[in-house]
Design goal:
2 domains; mainly alpha; Clc chloride channel; elongated; 3-stranded mixed sheet; about 600 residues; CBS-domain; two-stranded parallel ribbon; 9 strands
Length: about 600
């Protein structure tokens, strides 16, 4: 017999499927984390250089915001020039430089086998630096994610690897890029789990975490250990009224994020209707940026300094209105033009302004507290990452005193957004291209049921000494019984010895062919297989499904450790795992009833409904 599946693992069935390859991939991921950190540092330096070239007309890597140069007659033309350059790069070098990075990364991970063109690793950060440096209201994190992912993908393509391992390296590089940009290794690891990996397995989580830790360590050498935002630690207790306020703010943030998402995709749809080539769209988006910069100059650029202002306590209505109205409008308009730039920093900035505005009506907390709650809740609702956002609040500010209201706001925003938005900001564009992606993860029901629980045990088996005459008798009886007999589930016919051990196997077509042979005295086993593929009663249905996919067979005999036949499993039996899951999720039943007091027994009736 040819034994596949778990190979009699029985009591050694494992919780995890990881093998020694995890060490090899983790070692590669560690080096990749360092490279991604350098790439993130290089991108930040390029953004600073482009900002100085566009707005200060000098060659310098000193960080400045575009609005610090003042408002000049030529200021509105800088974003147009930057958009024009990005459009030319997209048309003549690579269209992959367009977009904000994360949807492209998700598409490559899920649908592209983790394969990214090497040129993207170079062109994407350059296009992003030009876009942001010319005043684009974007963040650097999304492009860094796709850049780090591209480096990991290229490494995976240079080495002999499976698609799964290549995807893990891509996600490791992408997460490491975010870890280096925001100095947030833990948040980057959680981002990989919630958005990029689409699985929770040691084979992927361990390399990604190692890459993020390495990136965080290298980032400290390049940019220092300080947090991205400075905030006075919250030492006072958070009262229940503030917790209720955080719950309300999370709900409001969900609707704001839904509105922003719809506005972005509506703008994308409008740009697609323009009677001009898409190469010109980023320049048109740049015109909107330039005009918005005349009204509210602080809307230009990444905006970390504006976020810092709000966290430090500057929540004047003029500033908040500028962010909520002007920043939102130019960001939506320019993002809809499909230029290069990230979405995390703008979402944090808009969310911070929302939190500060609503915070005027909320119970008093420490300075900047409502800004932080608003930032994380809007980010959660927009891209669906409550754990990442909550941890990001801690790593951005090193202020753990606000974890309770932050986590509550993130979870409430996540719950409401899951109800009001069929697609997040990341997956809507994929859906419009005809790609479906589910963001829910759970244990495969085929993993929770064994072959012994789903197999057929009432099996028609023949003695290993049977001849072709026995097959002829079987065929005659089948014809006599007619359609009822031919619709029977059994498609394979085992041959067993006196002890019940499997010695051979015939398919239904082989039985029919044997019955029609001229010499019916020949052993029946000559018409079948003496080394049939078998499964163990301890194999999971998932393993059986994988075997069926690999062998193109739809039936397997099930034999125990002694080689005795105990049943047959068919492809239809795999549905039992799914049907049990469906029943668990859809059937409502009352399992217990309270007994009446004072000695009355009451009725212990179990009711159910669908």
């Amino acid at each position: 017999m040819q034994q596949l599946g778990s190979k009699w693992r029985g009591s050694v069935l494992r919780d995890y499927s990881a093998d020694s390859r995890i060490l090899y991939v983790s070692a590669l991921a560690g080096g990749l984390g360092a490279v991604s950190a350098v790439a993130a540092w290089a991108l930040l330096e390029m953004i600073a250089l482009c900002t100085n070239l566009f707005y200060f007309h000098r060659w310098s890597f000193v960080e400045h915001d575009p609005w610090q140069s003042g408002v000049h007659w030529w200021s509105p033309m800088m974003p147009v020039l930057g958009g024009l350059i990005v459009g030319l790069m997209a048309r003549y070098l690579s269209p992959k430089v367009r977009g904000h990075g994360m949807p492209e990364a998700v598409e490559t991970i899920v649908f592209g086998g983790g394969k990214v063109q090497p040129r993207v690793a170079i062109l994407k950060p350059v296009a992003t630096a030009i876009s942001i440096g010319s005043g684009g209201p974007f963040g650097a994190e999304g492009p860094v994610i796709i850049t780090g992912g591209a480096i990991g993908s290229v490494l995976g393509q240079l080495l002999p690897m499976t698609d799964s391992e290549r995807t893990v390296l891509m996600v490791a590089g992408a997460s490491a890029g975010m870890a280096a940009t925001f100095n947030c290794p833990m948040s980057a690891t959680l981002l990989a789990v919630e958005i990029l990996l689409f699985e929770w397995r040691p084979r992927s989580l361990v390399p990604v975490a190692i890459a993020c830790v390495t990136a965080g360590a290298v980032r400290r050498l390049l940019l220092g250990p300080q947090s991205l935002l400075h905030m006075v630690p919250t030492g006072a207790p958070v009262y229940h009224s503030a917790m209720l306020g955080a719950l309300v703010l999370g709900i409001i943030a969900a609707f704001v994020a839904a509105g922003l998402s719809k506005a972005v995709h509506f703008t994308e749809h409008m740009f697609e209707k323009l009677p001009i080539h898409w190469m010109w769209w980023p320049a048109i988006g740049g015109l909107g940026i330039g005009l918005g910069g005349l009204v509210f100059p602080q809307a230009l650029g990444v905006g970390y300094s504006v976020i810092q202002q709000m966290i430090s306590g500057d929540t004047a209505w003029k500033l908040l209105a500028g962010v909520l109205i002007v920043k939102s409008l130019i960001w939506v308009f320019s993002l809809g033009s499909n230029t290069a730039g990230g979405i995390l920093a703008p979402l944090l900035m808009i969310g911070g302004a929302l939190g500060a505005a609503v915070g005027h009506l909320m119970p008093v907390m420490s300075p900047g507290a409502w800004v932080l709650v608003g930032m994380t809740s809007v980010l959660t609702a927009a891209i669906g990452c409550p754990l990442t956002s909550a941890m990001l609040a801690l790593e951005l500010t090193h202020n753990g005193g606000l974890m309770l209201p932050v986590l509550l706001a993130c979870v409430s925003a996540y719950a409401v957004s899951a109800l009001v938005q069929p697609r997040s900001m990341l997956t809507e564009s994929l859906s419009r291209r005809g790609l479906h992606l589910s963001r829910e993860f759970g244990v495969d029901p085929l993993e929770t049921m064994l072959a012994s629980q789903a197999m057929h045990t009432s099996v028609f088996a023949l003695n290993d000494s049977a001849t072709r005459k026995d097959a002829a008798d079987w065929l005659r009886k089948m014809d006599e019984r007619g359609a009822e007999a031919w619709s029977h589930w059994q498609r394979v016919f085992p041959l067993v010895d006196a002890d019940g051990k499997l010695t051979g196997l015939l398919t239904r077509s082989q039985m029919m062919a044997a019955a029609k042979q001229a010499d019916l005295s020949q052993p029946l086993v000559l018409s079948g297989s003496t080394t049939p593929i078998t499964v163990s009663p301890r194999d999971t249905l998932r393993e059986c499904a994988v075997m069926m996919a690999e062998t193109k067979l739809t039936s397997f005999p099930v034999v125990n450790a002694d080689g005795k036949l105990v049943g047959v499993i068919m492809i239809d039996d795999l549905l039992k795992g799914r049907s049990e899951q469906s029943q668990r999720e859809n059937m409502r039943e009352r399992v217990l009833r309270l007994r009446w007091p004072f000695g009355g027994r009451g009725e212990e009736v179990v009711t159910s409904d669908k």
